[in-house]
Amino acid sequence: MNPLLSRLQPYPFERLRELFSPITPNPAYRAISLGIGEPKHAAPELVKQALTAALGTGLSGYPATTGTPALRQACANWLQRRYGVEVDPSTQVLSVNGTREALFAFAQTVIDPTREGATVVCPNPFYQIYEGAALLAGATPYYAPSNPARNFAVDWDSVPPEVWQRTQLLYVCSPGNPTGAVMPLDEWRKLFALSDRYGFVIASDECYSEIYFRDEPPLGGLEAAIQLGRTGFERLVAFTSLSKRSNVPGLRSGFVAGDAAILQQFLLYRTYHGSAMSPVVQTASIAAWNDEQHVIDNRAQYRAKFAQVTPLLASVMDVALPDAGFYLWAAVPHRWNGSDTDFARELLAQYNVTVLPGSYLAREAQGFNPGQGRIRMALVAETAECLEAAQRIVQFIQSNP
């Protein structure tokens, strides 16, 4: 067996099942889960119609790994509308089976494990695929902590020069999971300068970019590059998906765009990896990328939901509206002495609501775990269910002074 498999950590939801295994939830309440970030809003009718229409002809041939020209053009058109960024769809866009698959495969493409001390830098807390991708590529993860004093922006300045010297790949996530923080242009300027100096590649995970609560949409990596005069997107690849934007996580559809030379090598890897997207899914994806009204409607649902739930929870715990995304990143009240696991366990037992301990989304590094003492709540269900969960959490905290 591949010895690198032994370096993988249990996934947060495996740890959650173990944490909850001895608990019998209060039967007086129906189960409500805020634990998993799986979109629950209805899938757009136009996507379902496109899927149905494509079934007649879309299963009779092998798909190209690149994606059809029509799909790549639809993705390029969306980048132009959303960010004002122009890309060549034939060389700077590739279809992928969701960002999770692509973020993992990307590390296997760009990491050279024969170079001494191969390192992948990622935020902390983070999406665990970053860590697993690094480990299975033969690299060592380095965890850059988020700073609560800066709206949970990542403290890139805390990464020592000797770590940057060994770094081959940097994962960034903006809007962030779980904090919802959005990287401003000055932060991108800093990372581009570091990339120029040390030669590492930047993978920009932007799958939450279309769910935001400010008037201005989140800045994207390619957009930042253009604003800073980096028209060739040197050592930069952006990853995005339809899962959150269009409420179709089961479609497993997204795309990557950026540095053409890197994408050429990524395509080579993916050709052997068997990563081609079904023609049926490609047809439905074109319909989704070409339509913006369902995205606007979806964003309005999240804004209305967060406007009701956030103040309710803020009355009893330290939590605020994020920049973007569909998570609330809340501090555990003092009564639990910073134990996010105790809070989650007792909440389930007393009120049958599931939340995810923040420490499960982070690693202890530089002497502390930046997720410790926080919980992540995914407000992905309909508003009424999320409100009921919030009301139970309020009751739970008030009944445990």
TrEMBL record:
Database matches in CDD domains: AAT_like (cd00609)
Highest taxon in the source lineage: Bacteria
Pfam families registered for this protein in UniProt: Aminotran_1_2 (PF00155)
MF (Gene Ontology): succinyldiaminopimelate transaminase activity
Keyword Transport: no
Essential cofactor(s): pyridoxal 5'-phosphate
InterPro entries noted in UniProt: Aminotransferase_I/II_large, DapC_beta/gammaproteobac, LL-DAP_aminotransferase, PyrdxlP-dep_Trfase, PyrdxlP-dep_Trfase_major, PyrdxlP-dep_Trfase_small
Keywords: Aminotransferase, Transferase
Boundaries of every Aminotransferase class I/classII large domain copy: 32-393
Enzyme Commission (EC) number: 2.6.1.17
Gene3D superfamilies named among the record's database cross-references: Aspartate Aminotransferase, domain 1, Type I PLP-dependent aspartate aminotransferase-like (Major domain)
Protein name (record): Succinyldiaminopimelate transaminase
Organism annotation: Giesbergeria sinuosa
Underlying gene: dapC
